[in-house]
Amino acid sequence: MTQEPILTGKNVSKYFGALRAVDNIDFSVYGGEILGIIGPNGAGKTTLLSVINGTLPISRGRIFFRGQEVTGLKPFRIAELGISRTFQIVKPFPGMTALENVAIGALFGRHQEKKMSRAMERAAETIKQVKLEGKENILVEKLNVSERKRLELARALTQDPDILLLDEVMAGLTSREIEDIMALIQEVNRAGTTIMVIEHVMKAIMGISNRIIVLHHGQKIAEGTPAEITENQQVVAAYLGPRYSKRVEERSHA
Amino acid sequence: MIRLQDHTYKVFLLVAFFLCAIFPAIASGFWIRLLSGIFLYAVLAQGLNIIAGFTGYAAFGNMIFFGLGGYTVGILMVKTGSPFLPSLVAAGIVGIIVAILIGMPLLRLRGHYFALASLGAAEAVRQIMDNLTDLCGGAMGLTLPQMAGKPGQVNTTFYYLIFSLLIIFFAATYYLSKNRLGYALKAIKANEEAADAMGINTTLYKIVAWAISGLFTAVAGGIYAYWFTFIEPATVFDVVVVVKLFVILLLGGAGTVMGPLYGAFIFEGISEIVWSRFLNLHMGILGILVIFIVFFIPNGLIDMARRGFRLKTILDTIREEKV
After folding, report:
1. Is A205 a member of any domain?
2. How far does A75 lie from chain B, in Å, by closest CA?
């Protein structure tokens, strides 16, 4: 993990009318780490991610990447700088094969290939990395849920990002598939990519994250190591409701 | 069963090219003019295909470029006496520039909004041309000088001119479809948000696509003007032509390289031979054809050829589309 954060957000806010979907959040992502963002449904996790990569315009606050301000840049510029994302609801390009889908990340993204053949080679490597080999020439609409999730990951990976923003890549997968994809995320991280991963399922993310940020109603309610987070009363309350949390607390004091 | 990947398809294309190349030597004036018209429609449809078929932006206002291309050639030839070919080049440049200028604001819109806005822009341009009486004759139209030579020679010259453009523009489309630009456009059509997130400058690529579309369409307009030697706003900005182009695209296969040509062949072939006998029912049959295509071959003939011409595949397609 680097000493200085490579991605920082200051007072990052996103309002939808009167709704404060993301409210005054500060965050730092250190190079080489896996940062988990958790929180109940509607906590603002995906919104935060969309504000970082520019899919949604920011309402207030500033974001810096490697010392450069990236607030308000368009998504394609952010991607070119080295921040790539996946979408929770995967967005493959129908009518194209899996290989072509992934190749687009190599043609554009951070290290743009001018030659089609080279882009296809890079795409083929990434497809192997996410264990989709054999599916290269299949139209993406024929892939199943788990394969589509891995394709979404491959499309982000082939852009060769510094930071990968993952939005619930495990949602809708079986526990076996979740294990596979967790292993894959760790492998990508070991190869040098910093990862910010959003997950609804706490169990999945706790095992792989170096640090965790917990969001609730658009606000950051806790930040720390997975161990610290599991013992945080506020987090338990946010997930299970204040009454349950009180019971847990009473029991632990008894 | 025809399969496009087959070797026979390449042979078919070569034979077709050869036949077209010698066509004026073996056919009468009527057939030469008919085929020239089909090729011109194919070029126009390819122009629309770039923005609508590949990029997914239904540019109902594409006649802007056709009209302005025609008027550029007309005004330059009539008012300045410049020769045809330089005027045609100027028409292409006008097409590109106008596409960039109106594309910058309009291409920020998506879906139906863009379709309507581009239609509005075309109407506005038509109104302007209607009133520019001093420059281009206004609503009364503009008469261009006739090409020198016997009618037969003129026919043949236009045939080869249009045929060459067809080859150039289709080759260019083939090239772009296999390269970065083509993939960017297809990605934008498939999912613009994801394309943006993957590093594609969507605004830039959409404008480039419309500029290419404008170039193809304006050049076709310039040829049309000189070929018919008379243009008026009501004809060259006619939105019905764009509707026909959409039918051609749907028929042949939007977003495919050869679709516009096959679509033009079938559509204009039917139009010329059958419909000329039912003059009053022309638009009615057009409507029925649109419904038929949307129902039975929504992805065009090219797609159907890829899957194989069988009743079962047609039924499968319909079922898939309904899901």
Report:
1. yes
2. 5
